[in-house]
Amino acid sequence: KEPSFLARSFDAVKSSMPDPSTIREVASNSLNVARATTSSLSANIYREIKGLTSSELEQVLLKATRPDDGAVKGKHVERLVSVTYQISPRYDIYDAVLRKLWGKMAEKDWRTKVKAL
User: What angle do CA 66, 67, 73 make, to 5 degrees?
Assistant: First the structure.
């Protein structure tokens, strides 16, 4: 005897449902991607706001060590050099610059580390 319409419908639904472990794995992977993307966006927004509210020296360092695939622009290097010469000799600017560059080398993104070198 042929199964009823209701039984065939339940079988069709049951056979089309994915395995729970597959759902768990896909959901976990999606969550990890979302977490990484959100973290990256947050870091970029923080970096931009910091640049708007920082000294000229900090702004130049942020632009020169931006975590992107582009090379450091010559204008940023020139500006960094000119900023260091504009500051009064009474201040030990080299200590501050080296400390900031060291902090950039300690960041997670390898592109920022390389640019800080």
Answer: 45
